[in-house]
Specification:
The chain is α+β, with helices and mostly antiparallel strands and 196 residues long. It contains 5 helices and 8 strands; from the N terminus they run αααββαβαβββββ. It folds into 2 domains: 35 residues, no CATH class; 135 residues, Mannose-Binding Protein A, Chain A, CATH 3.10.100. Strands 1, 2, 3, 4, 5, 6, 7 and 8 form an 8-stranded mixed sheet that branches. It comes from Portunus trituberculatus.
Length: 196
């Protein structure tokens, strides 16, 4: 049986080519080029900033799978100034939270409503903004957006004390929406929000 098969010659290939699909036509387009998996990833999957479920360590909790947050309320006898709240965050390897994006503000508001109860969910909380002689920055040194709708109307403003002010997250309005408000540095509040 060995030699009985049809012999392939150049003329056989060229004469039957119109009936046989070429290799390029018969192979699925995704198989034409073999690349390492990592080279496909940017083209096929959007990049996300989701946290791995174990990325946040105690006392931090994952909020919206994007941020590691620890919201704290001390008993009123040990209410904190803004610098005291920042020191408390730094002791747990974090810092006061930066709230530059609206979706982050909404996620934090929802977290506070579910995390606290008995009226404590409406407490004010220190956050990581500060003003000094008209220059407003977050704790990481980035500038704050003073035209943001996350500020309560007529804020920020520097209250006395040589133009120094700090940022407090307050609840206002019937929808339990939170806003930022500027406060003088000697102010004391029991709530503060840390971020890692």
């Amino acid at each position: 049986m060995r030699g009985r098969g049809r012999r392939t010659t150049h003329s056989n290939l060229s004469s039957g080519a119109e009936h046989i699909p070429s290799r390029r036509q018969s192979v699925a387009p995704w198989r034409l080029c073999v690349l390492p998996f990592s080279l496909y990833l940017p083209l096929t999957a959007p990049l996300t900033t989701s946290l791995h479920p174990t990325a946040c360590t105690e006392p931090f909790k994952a909020v919206a799978n994007k941020w590691c947050v620890a919201a704290n309320i001390s008993v009123p006898e040990v209410a904190h100034t803004w610098p005291g709240a920042r020191s408390a965050c730094q002791r747990i390897k974090g810092d006061l939270i930066i709230l530059e994006e609206d979706d982050k503000m909404q996620a934090i508001t929802a977290h506070l409503l579910t995390h606290f109860s008995g009226g404590r969910e409406s407490y004010p909380f220190w956050v990581g903004g500060r003003g000094n002689l008209g220059k407003w920055t977050w704790v990481d040194g980035s500038p704050m957006n003073l035209q943001s709708n996350m500020w309560i109307p007529d804020s920020p403003y520097e209250k006395l004390n040589n133009g120094v002010s700090h940022t407090l997250l307050i609840q206002a309005g019937p929808w339990k929406r939170r806003y930022m408000e500027s406060m003088p540095p000697e102010s004391n509040f029991p709530g503060y929000i840390c971020e890692k």
